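Q: I'm teaching a short session on how sequence maps to structure, and I want students to see two examples side by side rather than one. Could you give me a first protein with its sequence written out and its structure tokens following it? Keep the formatting plain so it prints cleanly on a handout.
A: Of course. Example one:
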Amino acid sequence: MMDGATFSPSPEVDFAAPADPVSSEEPKRLNRRQAAKVRTRQRVFDSAETLFRDVGFERATIRAIAKGAGMSTGAVFANFEDKTALYVAVFGHPPLTPEQGRALVVALRQSHDMLEAFADEEGVPELLASIQSALPPLPAKAAADA
């Protein structure tokens, strides 16, 4: 059984036919039971991703994730150790505390401001755009003061 820490959140993962890292041969075809487990895991994964994005880690519940997947809570726990492991599987990192989130926003804003001085350098405009898209918008008054 795979746990959330080893599950790759990469969108290019082929859930239907996992590759054998030891062999260079074609991946083996899954039997019906294995294929059903892969489909179940994917449904739980998709439901969790939607719920985490919509309501956040704290407000998302295993029960709501299971309901969104059309599964029982047992199906969630059969595939992921807990809600944190499921979040790590979906996003590739543990959930941030509010303090960590605020510190990250401050650091990103500072990085953006510093990088603007190098806006003509190769790759910097793309990096600035990535940082800007990751930052929440400033309230109107704060934006006017900035």
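Q: Perfect. Now a second example for contrast.
A: Example two:
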Amino acid sequence: MFKSGFGAIIGRANVGKSTLINNLVGEKVAITTSKPQTTRTAIKAIVNNENSQIIFIDTPGIHKPKNKLGETLNETTFQTLNEVDFILFLIEADSSKIGKGDSIILEKLKEINKKVILVINKIDLIKKADLLKLIDEYKNTYSFETVVPISATSGKGIKELLEEIKKLLPEGPAYYDKEEYTDQTMRQLAEEIIREKTLKLLQDEVPHGIYIETEKMKKRKTKEKEEIYDIEATIYCIRKSHKGIIIGKEGNMLKKIGSYARQDLEKILGTKVNLQLWVKVKENWQDDELIIKRFKLEQ
């Protein structure tokens, strides 16, 4: 009997959803940074086993929206919940009580009839007695299928979590080939890797005002008959002052972003990469419907 199913990972911004999804899959599928609202699209990550296939959807973190982009991200997350077989509700272990953001998610979960596993992340930051209190508090608010404490960073509890998920899967086919681990195109992966580096290297006020667009991605052979990817991408920002920060003195910041992104892309693509980056200003893009369409959930 083969089992398969789709599951959404939901939680507040910056609770470790992307780190968890990478750990579940064993590959870099979602970008990770210490900054909130890193995830912008519902990325699918695929875990293949001999008798099952699990498709995880990493959703944008729930937050108070400030523009159309923020509204779309929340909309994408809640829309995803209606289209999956199970949900992983990820919270932080060091939360002393149920906060406002988690309360909003719990209310949303009560509106839909789905199987939900409560996943408590960062258990290395809390004493066992406090962890048990936190579990009791959440159990009193919602009827979870089970509760699994984990550490997304170290991988502790991941195996147990996968076993619990398999119990919830319906009988079904393999929706993706066994070799696949994400539904993202290479262009999308390139954009996300570049954005990850900008998030990690730039000042706090700059990163969330950017988006990346891959203009060119083509594989060719060098004179030495080695395969190489030529990738050209543009980093769009909302202010002229931000453009100067992204480029940096004598172009040093842009070079650093490009160097770090190229290293990751070469690992993912398994070949050399020639990466060229440009920076352009596009004011108010976060309220531009044509651009925001990129972040909406595809049916």
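Q: What should students look for in example two?
A: Point them to this: The beta strands are 3-10, 43-49, 52-58, 86-92, 115-121, 146-149, 211-221, 227-237, 272-281. Also worth mentioning: The longest strand covers residues 211-221.
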